[in-house]
Every structure is written in C-alpha cells, then in structure tokens.
C-alpha cells in the first residue's frame, strides 16, 4: 500500500486544507474498495509536534506520526500557511528539510495555496512553474525570484510536484490527484459527493489586482500612482515615461523589474480591475464600461479583458452582478 502524508506545519495555519485532503482521499479509498479493489493509500497526518492549535486554540490537530519516523512516503500534501510567512518558514525548518529529502527519495509533493512557500524554501521550485493564492503573489515573487509563478493557473503539475491557487481551490487539486492516483471514475465520484467542479483550470476571474507595490523604486511608484489615477484615460507609454528623467528603455526596464509587468500590462490590469468593479456593481452596458476605462475599440477591450480574467466582459457581469443574477 502506498503512503500518503498530510503535513501539519507549526503555527496558526489553515485547518480546512488539512481536513479536506484527509476526507477526500479517505472517500476515494472507500469507493475504490467498494469497486472491489484494495485501499490505494495509507493516510497519515504528520508533523514535528504532538499537537498544533488553530484559530487561537479553538481547534487543534494531533498528528498521528512525527516526520522523523517516516523514512519513505509516496505522496506528501502541504497545507496552506498563515500569512506571516517569515514566521511560518522559520518555525518549520525541520519540515522543509524533510520535504527536500523525501522528494529526492522519490516522493511526489502537492502544495495547497501558500504551502508553496515551504516548497520554494526547500529549493524544489527553482526554475519551475508554480501557483499560489493571488493575494500572496507579490510577497512570493520577492522572496523566490527564481520560481516561475503563474497565479492565473489553478493547478500546476511538473516533475512530481503539484501546486494550486488559493483558498478552497485546493479541492480541485485533490480531485485532480485522485484521478491521477486512482482513476477518472473515482475522481468523478468524489467531485459529486463533495460537490466540487471538475476540470477547472484557472483562478484568473477571482484575482483582485491591487498593484505590485512591494518594491523600493520610488520612480516606479510614482508611475503606478499616475496610471491608477488616470484609468479613465488613454495612456501613452511614451508620454508616461517622459515625466521621469530616464530614457524610455530605462523606464521600461525599471518598471518590469519592480512590478513584474511591462508598463502596458500594468495599465491593462488597472483598467480591467476598474471595469470589473463597474460590471459587478452597476447597470452600465459593456460599451459604457469600456469607454469609462479609456477604450474605444470594442474588440481590443474584450480581448484584454478575457486575457486577464479568463472571461468575456458579459460572462463576468453575468457571474458577479447580483442585480443581473436576480433578474435571471
């Protein structure tokens, strides 16, 4: 029988991302046995303490096993961490080393949401693609610049390492892993029992763009502030760069280094974020919203909107506008 180890890191982390994988894989085991097979996984919760508190002591988890006892496992699930990443990483150095050792010994590893910070700290994501919660992306990029972070992706799968986006999207990752470890039929069964949408690939429509401000380049911060204040205008990159005592090439280079976006990409993301808010909360038509954020070409606006959110403007409005939903 294969071994599945669900980690219980030190700290006030995310309880649901420990309980969820435990319940889903146990259900997959039960269904597999009902079909006449043997349990695929022996499932254990493991950590470095005998008890870990959650939510200021309201709940606690008692790991069944200390990681020092586990010499070999087949699949490791890393749950989501709290947002004090420095504290989380410092408090889980033993786990990080153990994860690294297990991967070298052949284990596959799945990180949930901000659990990717532990994977990256182990050096296992260098020059690889990874996802995490969009709200943690700026902090993650700053801390781990050698990782190819793709926050639009719901799930990544590369060389036995799986990562996923934020919050309860870990349910999609668990169903994905059930299909890989069991079969499609078992994954469909779990998706129906737990009412999890199958085959969702993107978290783009959930991203709230707040601008990448965790950098020390004051010139770029000024440029960002101008872009955000002029979202209703058509902004020329040449005119924008001319406001600062650097060449256009230097401006572009510094902007990309600081934010991870080209100036044009940043402008597009700011405009689309404003458009999203309008589509969510007003009765304005798509064209009215388009003009409001400085676009006059309907085709260009729709293409940019879909590229950033994964949805057309109408699809987005239909999904998130409460008034429109109530009319339907």
Mean pLDDT: 92
Distance between the ends: 50 Å
Q: Quickly give the structural class.
A: alpha/beta
Query: Which spans of ≥5 residues are poorly predicted at pLDDT below 50?
Result: none
Strand order of the largest sheet: 5-2-1-6-7-11-10
Instruction: Please give the number of β-strands.
Output: 11
**Number of H/I helices:** 15
Gross geometry: globular
Describe the protein.
The chain has 328 residues and is α/β, with parallel strands linked by helices. It contains 15 helices and eleven strands. The protein has helices spanning 16-34, 85-90, 93-104, 116-121, 137-143, 170-181, 184-193, 218-229, 237-241, 248-259, 263-281, 286-292, 298-309, 313-320, 322-327, and strands spanning 2-7, 41-47, 52-54, 59-61, 65-66, 75-78, 108-111, 129-130, 148-149, 155-158, 161-164. A seven-stranded mixed β-sheet has the order 5-2-1-6-7-11-10, with helices on both faces. A two-stranded antiparallel ribbon has the order 3-4. Helix 1 (16-34) links the parallel strand 1 (2-7) and strand 2 (41-47). The longest helix has 19 residues, at 16-34. The radius of gyration is 22 Å and the shape is globular.
